[in-house]
Amino acid sequence: MGGPRGRRALVHAALGAGLSALVVMTVTVGDTSAAAEPAAPAAAATVASASAATATAVEPAESPAAATPSAAAPAALGGPLTPAELVAAFDRLVLPGTSDPAALPPITGDGATDAAIRAAGEARGYRVRAVADVGRLVPVGGVLLQPEAAAAWGRVQSAAAAAGHGGLRLVSGYRSAGDQAAIFGRYLASWGLDRALGRAAVPGYSKHHTGFAVDIAQGGLGGPAFGLSPAYAWLAADGFANARQHGFLPSYPPGAGPQGPDAEPWELVYAGTEAIRCAGPYATADPSCLPVRCPRLAATPVPFRFRQPDCTSLGVPLSPVETVDVDHTPSGRGYWVTTAGGVVRATNARHAGHGPTLRAGELVVALEPTPTERGYWLFTTAGRVFPYGDARHRGDVTTVLPPGQALRLPIVDAVATASGRGYLMVATDGGVFGFGDGRFQGSLPGVLGGRLPDAAVVGIAMAPGGYWLVGADGGIFTFGRIGFHGSVPGVLGGRRLDAPVAGMVASPAAGGYFLVGADGGVFTFGAAPFLGSLGGTGPRKSPIAALSPSPRDRSYLLVDAVGTTRAFR
Ligand SMILES: [Zn+2]
After folding, report:
1. Which pLDDT does position 73 carry in this prediction?
2. Which residue, 139, 456, 473, 505, has most beta carbons within 10 Å?
3. How far is the CA of 151 from the centre of ligand 1 (A)?
4. Residue from 384, 482, 485, 480 nearest 425 by CA
5. How many domains does the chain have?
C-alpha cells in the first residue's frame, strides 16, 4: 500500500515554559519510508538510531491568533525559573558528600528555648539541611567547599573577570552547626528573634552546612551591599543566567515566598547545571532530564537526584499499584480501571484478563477496549502490547527496534482505532508509533526538527482523520485532518496550571476533547461538555490519573491514583 507523500499537518504547539503565547505553525511533514507504510510500524522518533519524519518546511503562521515561532532557548541552560523554582531546584536534590543530621544541634543550650526558635524558624520556611562529609571538602582560600562547588566557583570568578567584574571573592562556604550557632547567637542577642531569623539561619538549618553554599562579595561590597555591586547585576541578569550557566543559583532570591531569611543577594548555592536545566515547571522532555527527575528509570546512578521524584508530570507512573487509566465500555454501561502493574478492575464490564508479565521497570500506561466490549489491550512504558479477550496483537514497539535496543523514553499513552484493528502509542517526547490501521500521521520530533518540546507529552487522542497529542502544560498538537479546538495555554494566557495535565480523551459524540489535570481540573474544548471537576480544591493526596467520557458525552469519570472513581453528569 502506498503511503502518504508530503502530508500537511497542522501543528498547534504551545511552546516554551517562559512563552505564554500560543504558537501555531503550519508544517509540511516530509515522509520517510518508515512513515509511509501504514501497515509498517511508524517512524520511531524516540529510537536513537531510527530516523523520524523530518520537517521540511516551516511556513509563516496563518492563524490570526498566531505568534511567530521564536528560536529555541539555549538548550544547555534551560529557560529562566521563577523564584520558587530557583529555590526548589536546590531543595529537591539529594546532595553528594552529605548526610542528613542524626540530631538537631543546640542553639542556646536551653531545650525549650531552642525548640521555640526552631518552630519560629520553620514557620518562616527554614528547613533542616544535610551536613557535609567534612573530609570531602576542599579549601578555596580560607574557605571549605564541596569539590563540585569549588570547581564551579573558579569558573564563575573567571567568567565574571572576563566580563569586567574583577574582585569577586568568597567570604564564607562550609559552616559547622557550631559556627552557625555563634553567628545566630550574636544576632539573637543584639536584635531579638524576629530580626535574627530574617538574617541568619537557625543552626542545623543553614545551606552552609552542606558545603554547597557560598557567601560572596565584590571588593568591599559584601552582605546586603553586594546586591548593589556590578558583579551582582551581572550574575542576576536574565534570570541569573551567568550563575545558572555554571551550576549556581541564588540561594534566597527575592519573591520566593517563605524560605527562611530575607532575600540574600550575597549567597549562591551550587546545584549543578543538570539539575538546574531540568528544574522547570514541568519536566522537559529532554531525555537527559529523565533520570534526574525519575531516578527509578535511570539505567545508571546519577550524582544528583531529586528527593521527591516528580515523575507524574512526565506521565510516568510511580508504582505498579498506582492507577493509571479508566475506560468506559463502548456501550457506556460499565468501565475498567487499570493499574501500572497491569491489574484491571471491571465494573459492569467484562473482565477479559489482566496481569501481563512485565520486565523490571516496565509499567502499564493505558487500557484501550475493542469495539465489541469483549476485550482490550494493555500498553506499557516499553511499548509492549498485551491483548485480552477479542483484542488482537497488531505489533508493538519492541518489534520495530533494532535487536537489543530499548526505547530511550517511555511510552506514556495509547489509543485504539474505532475499527479495533489498530492502535497508536506515544512516547514522552511526542514520538508516535502506529500499528494496524492506526496510521502514523506525524510526530513531534518530526515537526520540531529534533528539538524537544518544553513540556513532556502525556497523552494521545484520536478522531476520524488524525490525532492530537497533549503536553503536561496543556499544549495541544494536531496531526492529520482533524480540528484544533483550543489548548490550556491559549485559555490561561500567561498563567500557569496549578497541576500538570494528566491525560486527554476525545469527545466521543462530537468534535472536541477533554483534558484532565492531576488536581482534578477538567478542561473541555470544542463540543465536549463541561460537567464539573475537582479543580480549585487544592492539592490532592492522590493525583487524578485519567478521565473517561461516556459514549454520548452525558457523563465522565475521573479516577485518582488509588483507584477512586468520581462521576460527573
Ligand atoms: Zn550565607
Report:
1. 31
2. 456
3. 19
4. 384
5. 2
The answer on 409 and 477 residing in a single domain is yes
Q: Is the pLDDT of residue 27 over 70?
A: no
Cα 19-22-24 angle, rounded to 5 deg: 125
Q: What is the Å distance from ligand 1's center to 215 Cα?
A: 5
Looking at the structure, tell me whether residues 330 and 274 fall in a common domain. Answer: no
pLDDT at 349: 96
| Residue 24 sits in the same domain as residue 98 | no
Q: Is residue 146 part of a domain?
A: yes
For residue 183, give its domain range.
83-279
Q: How far is the CA of 302 from the centre of ligand 1 (A)?
A: 27
Asked whether residue 289 is assigned to any structural domain, the reply reads: no
The burial class, CB within 10 Å (0-12 / 13-18 / 19+), for 502 is buried
Domain's final residue, options 279, 296, 331: 279
Question: Domain check: are 246 and 327 in the same one?
Answer: no
Q: Do 61 and 99 reside in the same domain of the chain?
A: no
| Distance from residue 265's CA to the centre of ligand 1 (Å) | 9
Quote the CA–CA distance of 306 and 312 in Å, as a whole number. Answer: 13
Confirm if 226 and 191 have CB atoms less than 8 A apart.
Answer: no
Handedness of CA 384, 389, 393, 394 (dihedral sign): negative
- Of 430, 410, 429, nearest to 366 (Cα)? 410
Q: What is the CATH number of the domain that holds 542?
A: 2.130.10
pLDDT tens column, 33-61: 222 222 222 232 222 222 222 222 222 22
Percent of the chain residues past pLDDT 90, beyond the cut = 55
Contacts of 458 (CB under 8 A, 6+ apart): 313, 314, 315, 412, 413, 428, 470, 471, 472, 500, 501, 502, 503, 504
CB 130 within 8 A of CB 201: no
CATH number at 205 reads 3.30.1380.10
Distance 200 CA to ligand 1 centre (A): 8
* CA 104 vs CA 121, 205, 543: distances in Å: 13, 9, 33
Cell of 352: 477479559
Same domain, 270 and 346: no
Alpha carbon distance, N-terminus to C-terminus of the chain: 44
Q: State the distance from the centre of ligand 1 to the C-alpha of 180, rounded, in angstroms.
A: 10
In a domain, 110, yes or no: yes
User: Percent of the chain at pLDDT above 70?
Assistant: 77
The Å distance, Cα 267 to ligand 1 centre, comes to 5
Q: Predicted confidence band at 71 (pLDDT cuts at 50, 70, 90)?
A: very low
Q: Are residues 530 and 409 in the same domain?
A: yes
- 153 with 215, same domain: the answer is yes
- What confidence score (pLDDT) does residue 379 get? 97
Q: Which of 99, 84, 89 is nearest to 248 (CA)?
A: 89
pTM above 0.85, yes or no: no
How remote is the CA of residue 204 from the centroid of ligand 1, in Å? 13
Residue 224 CA, ligand 1 centroid: distance in Å:
11
Task: Tell me if 290 is assigned to some domain.
Answer: no
180 vs 381: which has the higher pLDDT: 180
